[in-house]
Design brief:
The chain is α/β, with parallel strands linked by helices. Helices cover about 25% and strands about 25% of the residues.
């Protein structure tokens, strides 16, 4: 696609998962068919609220910064064909990271895929198998079973459990105990919320 619905873009630090604390340029696309109740980007759901922006203009915004990594997120970015965006980013020597629920086929050439599957719209098995990182949001104790179901379908993937922010104080001790008993898992915290950045 030569143009994509751009909800927002900004240069910040990755706040979650394996690359937490790393500087990156975020490209947040509008439109989502997952619509989690705990989503912290609900303004992206309605694609009509996003500006249709040329891929070249998006990349130009990246090039205004010194970022060497671009994280494409949403909404749900895999609704769109991302081949052109990745191609142009790579022509400018940028690493391409994807954050997705994995419920659509993945397009584009990615250096890192973080898959965060959601129960109301399960991921495609092919996406689980190509994910570099599996990040499961834990809101209820039953979510640990969902985490294991997805982890069983991955291949040499880093595994993360992340407390859902609205219940993080209550659920975090359960996650800590779970990881201590299941050491293949790692803890992900939304550090951007703790330190007050985007």
């Amino acid at each position: 696609m030569d143009s994509l619905p751009l909800a927002e873009c900004f240069y910040s630090l990755q706040g979650e998962g394996c690359h937490s604390g790393k500087a990156a340029f975020f490209v947040r696309l509008g439109g989502c068919d997952v619509c989690c109740d705990f989503c912290d980007s609900k303004t992206t759901w309605n694609v009509k609220r996003s500006a249709i922006t040329s891929v070249q203009e998006i990349v130009d915004k990246v090039l205004e910064t010194i970022a060497d990594t671009v994280i494409v997120t949403g909404g749900e970015p895999t609704i769109y064909n991302l081949d052109a965006l990745c191609r142009l980013l790579k022509e400018n020597d940028k690493a391409c990271f994807l954050e997705t629920a994995g419920n659509h086929p993945v397009t584009g050439a990615w250096d890192w895929i973080c898959l965060s599957p959601k129960l109301n719209s399960p991921p495609l098995v092919e996406n689980l198998q190509q994910a570099n990182e599996l990040k499961i949001i834990i809101k209820h104790p039953a979510d640990f079973e969902w985490a294991e179901e997805n982890a069983a379908l991955t291949d040499n993937c880093l595994l993360f459990l992340q407390p859902e922010w609205s219940v993080h104080e209550k659920i975090l001790p359960l996650i800590v105990d779970y990881i201590k008993q299941n050491t293949q898992w790692n803890l992900s915290l939304q550090i951007h919320k703790y330190i007050g950045i985007e």
